[in-house]
Automatic annotation (TrEMBL):
InterPro entries associated with the record: RNA_pol_sigma-70-like, RNA_pol_sigma-70_dom, RNA_pol_sigma70_r4_t2, RNA_pol_sigma_r2, RNA_pol_sigma_r3/r4-like, WH-like_DNA-bd_sf
Name of this protein: Sigma-70 family RNA polymerase sigma factor
NCBIfam families in alphabetical order: sigma70-ECF
UniProt entry keywords in alphabetical sequence: DNA-binding, Sigma factor, Transcription, Transcription regulation
DNA-binding in keyword set: yes
Highest taxon of source: Bacteria
Domain RNA polymerase sigma factor 70 region 4 type positions: 117-169
PANTHER family hit by this protein: RNA POLYMERASE ECF-TYPE SIGMA FACTO, RNA POLYMERASE SIGMA FACTOR HI_1459-RELATED
Family indicated by similarity: Belongs to the sigma-70 factor family. ECF subfamily.
Amino acid sequence: MYQDQRPSYDCERLYRYFEEVYEQLLQIGRARQLEELVQKDLIHELFLSFYEKQIDFDTISYPNSYIITSYKRKIIDLFRESHRYSQDDNWMNHPLTLIPSPETTLMEKESMQELTQLLRKAYDQLPERCKRAIFLKYYKGLSVSAIQAETGWSAQSIYNYLSIGLKQLKAELVVHPNLATGGSSMLLLLLFATI
């Protein structure tokens, strides 16, 4: 039969600390607008963890401060956990659990094709240097210095061509305002996905 080889823990001292700081811990919880039952659970969990870890309060210079700080950390952990899983965000409303209908999927696909065609048309209407700068920068992933080496353009010219080209692409997408006002990453992803 297994016998616990740990030295006996002074539960009386732990209980005295519990009684000594209990009201103070409740006040801290009230100040943070916690329900009393939640506070009591947190306090009991805290002292249970002290017991399980066999915290030696003789080695701690300021045990009351240690207990209070530990309790505040438990409250912080509780708030973090409650924000991660808020009551408004139940699993039924999570976007990954909602399966779109075949009609919705088809409509989204057609809309994406239309957007890609519009973007391709806008790209084709760009000046040749703007098209080449965008292609080298965003499709091939070249740095400005690599583009300089390949084209012989100055760095400032490259920045100008990129800026002009992206502005013109966004200007053509007034039909899709959420893409036009967003970053250029989505635009270029759609554009170069078809190449």
